[in-house]
Amino acid sequence: MTKIAVLVGSLRKDSINRKFAVALEKLAAGRMEFVYADLASLPHYNDDLWDNVPDSVTQLKAAIEDADGVLMVIPEYNRTYPGVIKDAIDWVSRPWGKSSWPGKPVAITGTSPGVIGTAVAQHQLRTAMVASATAVMGQPELYYAYKPEHFGADGDIVDEATRTYLADWIGSFASWIAKTGK
């Protein structure tokens, strides 16, 4: 089964992006195993910490290295992606010469109550991930305007059109990993 490291950019307990990631996970059942990275315990990037590297950093790098692909599910804060995602990118890309990112297939998505979803943040994150030498899936893009009525209490997608659309996107990600993965 394809192992996916999932980075959710919202740390909030009732995050709609975490709910969205869980809904995508349910659609990927049987094809992909989602492993959620713990970003809440990740410190801000500080090069001085490499002398006594935090366990959360070691665990994050190992999760990325062990995964066949990475799914980044992000909110949009002030027209960009959250700082916790930037910290994750920086930790995983270092120390110099030991980045865990090169060649890793990555898909980026996110949701918000607004009509453009997280389009601006995703665009900026794609730029950062290309610079990190990942294989970023460019198409199809997924900017989802969150509608709570499309999801059941258990996280299942209850709106058939939404289920079909998101299942197709997961299928595209699976194809992307098969095409670009190592």
Descriptive notes:
The structure is a single chain. This protein has a single domain (2-180), classed as 3-Layer(aba) Sandwich (Rossmann fold). The protein is built from five helices and six strands. 37% of the residues are buried. With 182 residues, it is an alpha/beta fold. Strand 1 (2-8), helix 1 (16-28) and strand 2 (32-36) form a beta-alpha-beta unit. It is globular and about 50 Å long. The mean pLDDT is 96.
Tell me the domain tally. Answer: 1
Largest sheet features: 6 strands, parallel
Alpha-carbon distance between the termini?
15 Å
Please state the CA-atom Rg, rounded to the nearest Å: 16 Å
CATH architecture: 3-Layer(aba) Sandwich
CATH-defined superfamily:
Flavodoxin domain
Indicate the low-confidence ranges by residue numbers.
Answer: none
Helix fraction by DSSP (H/I, runs of at least 4): 25-40%
* Proportion of residues in extended strands: 15-25%
Treating each run of at least 4 consecutive H or I residues as one helix, how many helices? 5
User: Using DSSP, what is the number of strands?
Assistant: 6
Q: Output mean pLDDT.
A: 96
SS-derived structural category: alpha/beta
Query: Regarding CATH, which class?
Result: Alpha Beta
String of helices and strands: EHEHEHEHEEH
Multimeric state: single chain
Task: Give the overall silhouette.
Answer: globular
Topology-level CATH name: Rossmann fold
Question: What tags apply to this protein structure?
Answer:
182 residues; Rossmann fold; six-stranded parallel β-sheet; globular
What is the secondary structure topology, with strand pairs?
Layout: E1 2-8, H1 16-28, E2 32-36, H2 55-66, E3 69-73, H3 83-92, E4 105-112, H4 119-131, E5 135-136, E6 143-145, H5 160-180
